[in-house]
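From the pipeline queue, job 12 of 40. The input is one protein chain; the requested action is below.

Action: predict structure.
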Amino acid sequence: MKIVVVSSLFPHPQNPLSGKFVKEWAHFLKSQGHSVEVLFVSAIQSKDFFRKEISEKEEHGLIVHSVIIHSRFYKKIFQLIPILLRKDVEKKFEMIESKAKVELINSHFIFPSGIVAYKLSQKFRKKHIISEHWSKLDKFFSRNYFASRARAAYQNAESVICVSEFLKQNVLKHNPNLTNISVMPNIVDSLLFNFQEKKNRTDEIVFSAIASWVYPKRPQLFIEALNEIGMRTKKKIILKIGGDGPALDAAMEMKNLSIRINALGILNKQEVSDLMKQSDFFVHASDYETFCIVAAEALCCGTPVIASNRGGLPEIVNEESGVLVENTVTDWVTGIEKAMSRSFDSKRIAEQNQGRFSEQKVGEIFRQLLRQ
Protein backbone atom coordinates (compact mmCIF):
# COMPACT_ATOMS: atom_id res chain seq x y z
CA MET A 1 0.00 0.00 0.00
CA LYS A 2 1.28 3.47 -0.86
CA ILE A 3 0.86 5.81 2.12
CA VAL A 4 1.53 9.55 2.30
CA VAL A 5 2.25 10.74 5.85
CA VAL A 6 1.25 14.39 6.30
CA SER A 7 2.66 16.31 9.25
CA SER A 8 3.39 19.88 10.34
CA LEU A 9 6.14 18.55 12.61
CA PHE A 10 9.19 16.81 11.18
CA PRO A 11 12.95 17.02 11.82
CA HIS A 12 14.57 19.89 9.92
CA PRO A 13 17.90 21.76 10.11
CA GLN A 14 16.59 24.44 12.49
CA ASN A 15 15.11 21.82 14.83
CA PRO A 16 16.39 18.26 14.22
CA LEU A 17 14.31 16.88 17.12
CA SER A 18 10.97 18.31 16.00
CA GLY A 19 8.48 15.59 15.12
CA LYS A 20 11.09 12.86 15.38
CA PHE A 21 8.37 10.35 16.29
CA VAL A 22 6.62 11.08 12.95
CA LYS A 23 9.81 10.17 11.10
CA GLU A 24 10.10 7.00 13.18
CA TRP A 25 6.47 6.16 12.39
CA ALA A 26 7.08 6.60 8.65
CA HIS A 27 10.08 4.25 8.83
CA PHE A 28 7.97 1.78 10.81
CA LEU A 29 5.32 1.78 8.06
CA LYS A 30 8.07 1.10 5.53
CA SER A 31 9.30 -1.82 7.63
CA GLN A 32 5.77 -3.26 7.41
CA GLY A 33 6.04 -3.44 3.63
CA HIS A 34 4.28 -0.19 2.68
CA SER A 35 5.55 2.38 0.19
CA VAL A 36 5.78 5.58 2.23
CA GLU A 37 6.44 9.23 1.42
CA VAL A 38 6.24 12.19 3.81
CA LEU A 39 4.57 15.51 3.09
CA PHE A 40 5.96 18.06 5.55
CA VAL A 41 3.70 21.14 5.59
CA SER A 42 4.66 23.87 8.03
CA ALA A 43 5.89 27.38 8.85
CA ILE A 44 9.40 27.72 10.30
CA GLN A 45 11.12 30.57 12.10
CA SER A 46 13.72 32.44 10.07
CA LYS A 47 14.99 35.97 9.39
CA ASP A 48 13.08 36.05 6.10
CA PHE A 49 9.97 38.17 5.71
CA PHE A 50 8.23 35.46 3.68
CA ARG A 51 10.07 32.71 1.79
CA LYS A 52 8.38 29.63 0.42
CA GLU A 53 10.23 26.33 0.10
CA ILE A 54 8.93 23.50 -2.07
CA SER A 55 11.42 20.67 -2.17
CA GLU A 56 12.00 16.93 -2.25
CA LYS A 57 14.83 14.90 -0.79
CA GLU A 58 15.62 11.39 0.33
CA GLU A 59 16.53 10.81 3.98
CA HIS A 60 17.72 7.33 4.91
CA GLY A 61 15.53 5.70 2.29
CA LEU A 62 12.51 7.92 3.01
CA ILE A 63 11.30 10.49 0.47
CA VAL A 64 10.36 13.74 2.19
CA HIS A 65 8.43 16.44 0.35
CA SER A 66 8.49 19.86 2.01
CA VAL A 67 5.99 22.67 1.49
CA ILE A 68 7.17 25.27 3.99
CA ILE A 69 7.03 29.00 4.62
CA HIS A 70 10.12 30.49 6.27
CA SER A 71 9.32 33.74 8.06
CA ARG A 72 9.96 35.87 11.12
CA PHE A 73 6.14 35.84 11.45
CA TYR A 74 6.00 32.04 11.42
CA LYS A 75 3.64 31.76 14.41
CA LYS A 76 0.90 33.78 12.73
CA ILE A 77 1.53 32.17 9.34
CA PHE A 78 1.29 28.70 10.91
CA GLN A 79 -2.33 29.48 11.84
CA LEU A 80 -3.16 30.11 8.17
CA ILE A 81 -1.42 27.14 6.59
CA PRO A 82 -4.62 25.43 5.34
CA ILE A 83 -5.30 28.57 3.26
CA LEU A 84 -1.83 29.84 2.37
CA LEU A 85 -0.38 26.52 1.22
CA ARG A 86 -3.49 24.76 -0.15
CA LYS A 87 -2.64 25.07 -3.87
CA ASP A 88 1.04 24.24 -3.34
CA VAL A 89 0.13 21.16 -1.31
CA GLU A 90 -2.33 20.00 -3.98
CA LYS A 91 0.31 20.39 -6.73
CA LYS A 92 2.83 18.46 -4.65
CA PHE A 93 0.31 15.69 -3.99
CA GLU A 94 -0.50 15.45 -7.70
CA MET A 95 3.20 14.97 -8.37
CA ILE A 96 3.42 12.21 -5.71
CA GLU A 97 0.32 10.55 -7.17
CA SER A 98 1.74 10.69 -10.71
CA LYS A 99 4.53 8.28 -9.72
CA ALA A 100 2.26 5.69 -8.10
CA LYS A 101 -1.34 5.69 -6.90
CA VAL A 102 -1.71 6.79 -3.30
CA GLU A 103 -4.05 4.51 -1.34
CA LEU A 104 -3.97 6.17 2.10
CA ILE A 105 -3.22 9.56 3.64
CA ASN A 106 -2.11 9.40 7.27
CA SER A 107 -2.02 12.82 8.97
CA HIS A 108 -0.53 13.62 12.38
CA PHE A 109 -2.27 16.25 14.56
CA ILE A 110 -5.64 17.66 13.53
CA PHE A 111 -4.18 21.13 12.99
CA PRO A 112 -2.98 22.04 10.56
CA SER A 113 -1.98 18.64 9.15
CA GLY A 114 -5.32 16.91 9.64
CA ILE A 115 -7.24 19.70 7.92
CA VAL A 116 -4.72 19.85 5.05
CA ALA A 117 -4.95 16.07 4.63
CA TYR A 118 -8.76 16.15 4.86
CA LYS A 119 -8.93 18.58 1.92
CA LEU A 120 -6.54 16.35 -0.05
CA SER A 121 -8.64 13.27 0.73
CA GLN A 122 -11.78 15.04 -0.47
CA LYS A 123 -10.25 16.43 -3.67
CA PHE A 124 -8.39 13.25 -4.68
CA ARG A 125 -10.86 10.78 -3.11
CA LYS A 126 -8.38 9.06 -0.82
CA LYS A 127 -8.79 7.25 2.47
CA HIS A 128 -7.63 9.33 5.41
CA ILE A 129 -6.51 8.19 8.86
CA ILE A 130 -5.78 10.82 11.51
CA SER A 131 -3.14 10.02 14.15
CA GLU A 132 -3.87 12.35 17.04
CA HIS A 133 -1.23 13.39 19.59
CA TRP A 134 -2.15 17.02 20.16
CA SER A 135 -2.28 18.51 23.64
CA LYS A 136 -3.97 21.78 22.60
CA LEU A 137 -7.42 20.53 21.54
CA ASP A 138 -9.32 22.45 24.24
CA LYS A 139 -7.85 25.79 23.22
CA PHE A 140 -8.22 25.00 19.51
CA PHE A 141 -11.89 24.04 19.63
CA SER A 142 -12.82 26.94 21.90
CA ARG A 143 -11.74 29.72 19.55
CA ASN A 144 -10.10 28.66 16.28
CA TYR A 145 -11.47 29.68 12.88
CA PHE A 146 -10.76 26.17 11.56
CA ALA A 147 -12.63 24.30 14.33
CA SER A 148 -15.57 23.38 12.08
CA ARG A 149 -13.19 22.04 9.41
CA ALA A 150 -11.43 20.00 12.08
CA ARG A 151 -14.74 18.42 13.11
CA ALA A 152 -15.47 17.62 9.46
CA ALA A 153 -11.99 16.07 9.12
CA TYR A 154 -12.59 13.84 12.15
CA GLN A 155 -16.06 12.82 10.96
CA ASN A 156 -14.95 11.95 7.42
CA ALA A 157 -11.75 10.11 8.33
CA GLU A 158 -11.61 6.35 7.98
CA SER A 159 -10.30 6.30 11.52
CA VAL A 160 -9.09 8.66 14.24
CA ILE A 161 -6.26 7.07 16.24
CA CYS A 162 -5.43 8.55 19.64
CA VAL A 163 -2.26 7.74 21.58
CA SER A 164 -4.17 7.29 24.85
CA GLU A 165 -7.66 6.81 26.24
CA PHE A 166 -7.25 10.20 27.92
CA LEU A 167 -6.74 11.89 24.54
CA LYS A 168 -9.59 9.88 23.00
CA GLN A 169 -11.97 11.23 25.63
CA ASN A 170 -10.69 14.75 24.98
CA VAL A 171 -11.39 14.38 21.25
CA LEU A 172 -14.88 13.05 22.03
CA LYS A 173 -15.55 15.99 24.34
CA HIS A 174 -15.42 18.26 21.31
CA ASN A 175 -16.81 15.70 18.83
CA PRO A 176 -19.40 13.67 20.80
CA ASN A 177 -20.89 11.92 17.76
CA LEU A 178 -17.57 10.51 16.58
CA THR A 179 -17.63 6.70 16.23
CA ASN A 180 -14.55 6.02 14.10
CA ILE A 181 -12.12 6.52 17.00
CA SER A 182 -9.68 4.14 18.68
CA VAL A 183 -6.55 4.05 20.83
CA MET A 184 -3.10 2.99 19.66
CA PRO A 185 -0.01 3.81 21.78
CA ASN A 186 3.27 5.04 20.42
CA ILE A 187 5.93 2.48 19.54
CA VAL A 188 8.97 1.83 21.70
CA ASP A 189 12.04 0.47 19.91
CA SER A 190 12.53 -2.90 21.61
CA LEU A 191 16.03 -3.28 20.14
CA LEU A 192 17.16 -0.25 22.15
CA PHE A 193 14.84 -0.16 25.13
CA ASN A 194 15.01 -3.58 26.73
CA PHE A 195 15.84 -5.18 30.04
CA GLN A 196 19.25 -4.93 31.65
CA GLU A 197 19.91 -6.18 35.17
CA LYS A 198 20.16 -3.33 37.67
CA LYS A 199 23.34 -2.77 39.64
CA ASN A 200 23.04 -3.41 43.36
CA ARG A 201 24.17 -0.04 44.71
CA THR A 202 24.27 0.43 48.46
CA ASP A 203 25.73 3.91 48.77
CA GLU A 204 23.88 5.88 46.08
CA ILE A 205 20.58 6.12 44.16
CA VAL A 206 20.50 7.28 40.54
CA PHE A 207 17.46 9.07 39.14
CA SER A 208 17.12 10.12 35.53
CA ALA A 209 14.84 12.47 33.59
CA ILE A 210 14.68 13.27 29.89
CA ALA A 211 12.46 15.76 28.05
CA SER A 212 12.28 18.90 26.03
CA TRP A 213 12.11 21.14 29.06
CA VAL A 214 9.39 23.61 28.22
CA TYR A 215 6.00 24.00 29.89
CA PRO A 216 3.99 21.86 30.74
CA LYS A 217 7.12 20.02 31.97
CA ARG A 218 7.96 20.93 35.59
CA PRO A 219 11.42 19.63 36.53
CA GLN A 220 11.62 21.92 39.56
CA LEU A 221 9.12 19.65 41.36
CA PHE A 222 11.35 16.58 41.41
CA ILE A 223 14.55 18.60 41.86
CA GLU A 224 13.15 20.26 45.00
CA ALA A 225 11.73 16.95 46.24
CA LEU A 226 15.01 15.07 45.73
CA ASN A 227 16.91 17.90 47.39
CA GLU A 228 14.66 17.65 50.44
CA ILE A 229 15.11 13.88 50.59
CA GLY A 230 18.86 14.25 50.09
CA MET A 231 19.13 16.38 53.21
CA ARG A 232 17.89 13.55 55.41
CA THR A 233 19.19 10.37 53.81
CA LYS A 234 22.63 8.82 54.17
CA LYS A 235 22.64 7.71 50.54
CA LYS A 236 24.11 9.89 47.84
CA ILE A 237 21.39 10.99 45.40
CA ILE A 238 22.39 11.58 41.79
CA LEU A 239 20.00 13.10 39.24
CA LYS A 240 20.98 12.79 35.57
CA ILE A 241 18.95 15.00 33.24
CA GLY A 242 18.87 14.81 29.44
CA GLY A 243 17.48 17.50 27.18
CA ASP A 244 17.36 21.27 27.51
CA GLY A 245 14.91 24.16 27.69
CA PRO A 246 13.83 27.15 29.79
CA ALA A 247 11.98 25.10 32.42
CA LEU A 248 15.19 23.22 33.19
CA ASP A 249 17.31 26.39 33.13
CA ALA A 250 15.07 27.94 35.79
CA ALA A 251 15.12 24.80 37.96
CA MET A 252 18.92 24.56 37.77
CA GLU A 253 19.28 27.97 39.41
CA MET A 254 18.62 26.43 42.83
CA LYS A 255 21.53 26.95 45.22
CA ASN A 256 23.11 24.79 47.98
CA LEU A 257 21.70 21.51 46.69
CA SER A 258 22.15 18.34 48.74
CA ILE A 259 22.08 16.21 45.57
CA ARG A 260 24.36 15.95 42.58
CA ILE A 261 22.85 16.95 39.25
CA ASN A 262 24.44 15.97 35.94
CA ALA A 263 22.98 18.01 33.06
CA LEU A 264 23.68 15.90 29.98
CA GLY A 265 22.18 18.07 27.23
CA ILE A 266 20.64 16.60 24.09
CA LEU A 267 21.01 12.82 23.89
CA ASN A 268 20.57 10.43 21.00
CA LYS A 269 18.37 7.34 21.34
CA GLN A 270 21.25 5.05 22.28
CA GLU A 271 22.38 7.44 24.99
CA VAL A 272 18.80 7.71 26.29
CA SER A 273 18.58 3.91 26.46
CA ASP A 274 21.92 3.62 28.26
CA LEU A 275 20.90 6.27 30.79
CA MET A 276 17.58 4.61 31.57
CA LYS A 277 19.17 1.19 32.03
CA GLN A 278 21.77 2.64 34.40
CA SER A 279 19.14 4.43 36.54
CA ASP A 280 17.32 3.16 39.59
CA PHE A 281 14.29 5.36 38.89
CA PHE A 282 12.99 7.56 36.08
CA VAL A 283 11.14 10.76 37.05
CA HIS A 284 8.75 12.82 34.92
CA ALA A 285 6.87 15.90 36.15
CA SER A 286 4.34 17.52 33.84
CA ASP A 287 0.99 19.29 33.99
CA TYR A 288 -0.25 17.63 30.80
CA GLU A 289 0.67 14.57 28.73
CA THR A 290 -1.35 12.93 25.96
CA PHE A 291 1.07 9.99 26.15
CA CYS A 292 4.69 10.03 27.36
CA ILE A 293 7.13 8.11 25.22
CA VAL A 294 10.07 8.53 27.62
CA ALA A 295 8.08 6.98 30.47
CA ALA A 296 7.17 4.03 28.24
CA GLU A 297 10.82 3.67 27.16
CA ALA A 298 12.02 3.65 30.77
CA LEU A 299 9.52 0.94 31.69
CA CYS A 300 10.63 -1.18 28.72
CA CYS A 301 14.13 -1.02 30.23
CA GLY A 302 12.69 -2.25 33.53
CA THR A 303 13.23 1.10 35.26
CA PRO A 304 10.41 2.09 37.65
CA VAL A 305 8.81 5.44 36.87
CA ILE A 306 7.74 8.17 39.31
CA ALA A 307 5.45 10.52 37.39
CA SER A 308 2.74 13.16 37.65
CA ASN A 309 -0.79 11.84 37.92
CA ARG A 310 -1.84 13.80 34.85
CA GLY A 311 -3.19 13.18 31.36
CA GLY A 312 -2.24 9.85 29.81
CA LEU A 313 0.44 9.01 32.38
CA PRO A 314 -1.87 6.85 34.59
CA GLU A 315 -2.39 4.61 31.53
CA ILE A 316 1.36 3.98 31.36
CA VAL A 317 2.45 3.81 35.01
CA ASN A 318 0.68 1.52 37.48
CA GLU A 319 1.24 0.25 41.03
CA GLU A 320 3.48 -2.53 39.78
CA SER A 321 5.72 -0.35 37.64
CA GLY A 322 6.07 2.87 39.64
CA VAL A 323 4.35 5.64 41.58
CA LEU A 324 1.96 8.40 40.46
CA VAL A 325 2.06 11.71 42.36
CA GLU A 326 0.21 15.00 42.44
CA ASN A 327 2.12 18.08 41.34
CA THR A 328 3.21 19.51 44.68
CA VAL A 329 6.69 19.23 46.16
CA THR A 330 5.19 17.56 49.25
CA ASP A 331 3.52 14.86 47.20
CA TRP A 332 6.63 14.36 45.11
CA VAL A 333 8.66 13.83 48.30
CA THR A 334 6.11 11.28 49.52
CA GLY A 335 5.99 9.52 46.15
CA ILE A 336 9.76 9.27 45.75
CA GLU A 337 10.18 7.97 49.29
CA LYS A 338 7.44 5.42 48.64
CA ALA A 339 9.25 4.23 45.51
CA MET A 340 12.61 4.09 47.34
CA SER A 341 11.10 1.93 50.07
CA ARG A 342 9.69 -0.63 47.66
CA SER A 343 11.23 -3.57 45.81
CA PHE A 344 10.32 -3.52 42.11
CA ASP A 345 10.62 -6.52 39.77
CA SER A 346 12.51 -4.81 36.95
CA LYS A 347 12.50 -7.83 34.65
CA ARG A 348 8.73 -8.19 34.95
CA ILE A 349 8.24 -4.44 34.36
CA ALA A 350 10.29 -4.68 31.16
CA GLU A 351 8.51 -7.77 29.86
CA GLN A 352 5.03 -6.40 30.47
CA ASN A 353 5.70 -3.06 28.83
CA GLN A 354 7.61 -4.40 25.85
CA GLY A 355 4.47 -6.38 25.13
CA ARG A 356 2.33 -3.22 25.27
CA PHE A 357 4.48 -0.91 23.16
CA SER A 358 6.31 -3.22 20.75
CA GLU A 359 6.28 -2.85 16.97
CA GLN A 360 4.47 -6.18 16.76
CA LYS A 361 1.66 -5.07 19.09
CA VAL A 362 1.16 -1.62 17.56
CA GLY A 363 1.58 -3.00 14.04
CA GLU A 364 -1.24 -5.48 14.61
CA ILE A 365 -3.57 -2.70 15.85
CA PHE A 366 -2.80 -0.65 12.72
CA ARG A 367 -3.31 -3.65 10.41
CA GLN A 368 -6.72 -4.25 11.97
CA LEU A 369 -7.66 -0.63 11.30
CA LEU A 370 -6.58 -0.96 7.66
CA ARG A 371 -8.75 -4.08 7.28
CA GLN A 372 -11.87 -2.35 8.59
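Job complete. Residues 2-184 form a domain with the Rossmann fold fold (CATH 3.40.50.2000).
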